[in-house]
Amino acid sequence: MVTLTINGVVQEVNVPSNEIPMLWVLRDIVGLTGTKYGCGIEVCGACTILVDGSPRKSCQMSVNEGVGRSITTVEGLSPDGVSHPLQKAWVQLQVPQCGYCQSGMLMSACAHYNSGSNGDGIEIDNLCVCGTYQRVKQAIQLAATL
Amino acid sequence: MAIGLMEAAPNAEQMQEGLSLPSGIKPSRRQFLVSATGGFMLQFCLPGLSRFASAAGVPAPTAINSYIQIGTDSRITVLFGGCELGQGAMSGLAQIAAEELMVEWTQVKSALAPLGPITYITGGSSAIRNNYLPLRQAGAAVRMMLIRAASNHWGVSVNQCYANNGTVIDAPTKRVLTYGALALAASKLAPPAKPTLIPDAALRLIGKPLVRLDMADKTNGRAIYGIDVRLPGMVYAAVRHAPMLGGTLASTPTNRNGVTFVNLGTAVAAVAGDTHSAFSALGEGDDDGGGSGGGGFKWTTPPNAAQIASTVFATQAATIMKQGPVLESEVVGSALAAKSTSTTTIDATYSVPYLAHACLEVLNCTVNLTPTFCEIWAPTQVAGWAQAAAAAITGLPLAAVKVNVTYLGGGLGRKLETDCIVQAVQIAKAIKKPVKLTWPRQEDFQRDKYRPMAVSYLRGSLDSSHNIVAWWNRVVTPSISAQKGFITAGAEDGGAVEGAVTLPYAMVNRLVEFGPHPSPVPIGWWRSVGVSYNAFFVESFIDELAHATSQDPYQYRRRLLVNNPRFLAVLDAAAELGGWNTTLANGHARGIAIAETFGTVVAQVVEISGASATGLRVVSVACAVDLGRAINPDSIEAQMQGGIVHGMGAALWGHITFANAAASVQNFNTYRLVKMSDMPTIKVKILPSTNPPSGAGEPGVPPFAPALANAYFRATGIRARSLPLFPAASHMGD
């Protein structure tokens, strides 16, 4: 049993081991499936979450490392799921295609957004097989103005 | 019989006068059901990739697979029998229906049809291409019935009533009834035999860049993909396949540490309380992404394992290229004889490798199997095939198998296969619990149904005016249709030569041949299928002819397209958009290419910089497209952008090789894809057209590789006759 703070909610989570990656704790145990599995080796970024505000690939982060920290997933971007400026910009510019990578993409973008970036020159390392990158860039810039 | 993914879109005549109802809508009350929310549903059949379904031995859809539902609360839902894999089909189809229903976009919801059996196949860029007219007819039928119900209610002529914003209005009195209020009465009427479509001049929604209906849920974690399905009491499974193709599990491992193992023949499944525990029991999740030797399982190696090797495949291809056997796919005139009368003959041999689909969502499937019912949740392009496969494994009748199609985290053709679904049902049968099977990424790469390798010999003979008097193209590649049993091994396969036949260019004599390659590597349909490689071969070779005759490659194509105004217009648009005639910056070069895929013509101008023997930068891509009537221009632009990115990763770095029956790639760290920092600026121009719509999902892919290779030649003088351009640069990440 570990105590985690996920999207502002403090909760006791029954984990099979303290080494289980945060990705699978979120998905299989807590039931927050917005964070995605893509590669398991910290390359694709589909599992990106914020840990104390910094983007972190959760597939190789043990649950232990999350104890005492603030975890934010895509479900925690906004209370209603639509009102974060990044979410508004993403919808306005119709960024997602299949959408599978977009949770991780949004969390990486969120770290830039929170730092006050206007979006210029940002290069996010997340993979998008659908090729939405051009719109992701535009949406980060748009979000900074919303 | 030639079997490809090509199908004719409804033609102009059908558009004008083919107002009979799509099959499945019969003028009978039985066609209307009171929906769960009250109101009524119009049921009908959308064809999807219907001819392909027939080829696979599954009946083409004639049964109901799609619905328009009008609730008594006036909510309008378009339920579609296919799937949403990012192409925007659910929204595009709802947009078409909303047009005929005369409602606003905000009044419409879209969903996947929850009712089986479903024979609809999502593939071949067919969602809009083949469903456009049937859906307009269905929407028009609903509108006419609602108007009829209103006129009956008021006791006035139907001719004085009209639909507007989800209501019916009695023109003289301005009385209004909502669709919701009319739904039950309308459900008792017969649908019109010939629905009247809204005239072109009055179209309000078709052609507008409406915001797709799945956008919000894809920004907040609410979109449920197959991998996200959770059932009460569910356990988690993963598989490891034999480390060599054709290998089998020698003995079933003993259950340990709360993990149950299931012998699937060519793979072992581990079942545990969470995905990570299942992965770990298979030796996955190592820091290096796992290796084929993990898990300590005993495998039986097939006797031909050493022969499953890229070096062997290449030798076989060279032999077939030289000696046959080959089949004639297209014969016009006498290409071989015409060579002797020509003044110049040029030839070249090209090749492309196997490719992975690499959908970001790995294969997965969730099954709840009871003695009398099997319910499946899967990200699948072929719900009907999944249903049939599950029925065969469980012995249940088709009616006792329900397939719930989730969102797909990419499809790209990989989810036209049922291999993972079959395994999940087998596991459910063995362990008798609700189970979700998730493939580790390594399995996704190691057991893909790869885009086939292909080798192409081209010979062009030119007269003194540089006209092509003879064109000979021999394509050696494994046949997807033959491997899947749709056609006899060694038979003609139209799919293998898609993009190599019916070329738009003026060529007096042509011979296109297909040499079936016997490679045992599992293959499948990859975004744009045969055109993905044939366009590279043909458009590179056209460039070679232009260069050999000292002509500008754009102008040379213009000459060859003199009798093909549609292609010419697309080519000109791309050249203009890409600034073909403008001065290039130092170190920059441009290439151009054009190809037709699923009825859609796309031309691209690719501009590169910094080209060397080890890399280059793609600066910009100008893409012009004629896909008939554009339903949602924003979605089309997105599909072109996506197709270009897909083609770009494949052209620069994509390749899978085989040695000792094992694929060379385990994970994304050795299968480089385009990242944001690699992105060119992409500009898309959609040519205006009132022709019936053709495909959008795949046609953006094929022109990229040849346009890039042609630019690379201009920059370096190196003619890239095999892809990828930079196989040694295929690492990504740490």
UniProtKB/TrEMBL annotation, chain A:
Q: Where is the 2Fe-2S ferredoxin-type domain?
A: 1-77
Q: Name one GO molecular function term.
A: metal ion binding
For this protein, what is the EC number?
A: 1.3.99.16
Keyword set, alphabetical order: 2Fe-2S, Iron, Iron-sulfur, Metal-binding, Oxidoreductase
What PROSITE patterns does the annotation carry?
A: 2FE2S_FER_2
Write down the superkingdom of origin: Bacteria
Q: Which protein are we looking at?
A: Isoquinoline 1-oxidoreductase alpha subunit
Automatic annotation (TrEMBL), chain B:
User: Which terms does the record give in the GO molecular function aspect?
Assistant: isoquinoline 1-oxidoreductase activity
Q: Which Gene3D superfamilies match?
A: Aldehyde oxidase/xanthine dehydrogenase, a/b hammerhead (3.90.1170.50), Aldehyde oxidase/xanthine dehydrogenase, molybdopterin binding domain (3.30.365.10)
User: Does the keyword Oxidoreductase belong to this entry?
Assistant: yes
Key word Oxidoreductase present in the record? yes
Give the E.C. number(s).
1.3.99.16
Sorted alphabetically, the keyword list is: Oxidoreductase
Q: What is this protein called?
A: Isoquinoline 1-oxidoreductase beta subunit
Q: Where is the Aldehyde oxidase/xanthine dehydrogenase first molybdopterin binding domain?
A: 333-559
Source taxon at top rank = Bacteria
Can you give the residue ranges of the Aldehyde oxidase/xanthine dehydrogenase second molybdopterin binding domain?
Answer: 66-187, 603-680
Q: Which Pfam families match?
A: MoCoBD_1 (PF02738), MoCoBD_2 (PF20256)
- Xref: InterPro entries: AldOxase/xan_DH_MoCoBD1, AldOxase/xan_DH_MoCoBD2, AldOxase/xan_DH_Mopterin-bd_sf, N-heterocyclic_Hydroxylase, OxRdtase_Mopterin-bd_su_IorB
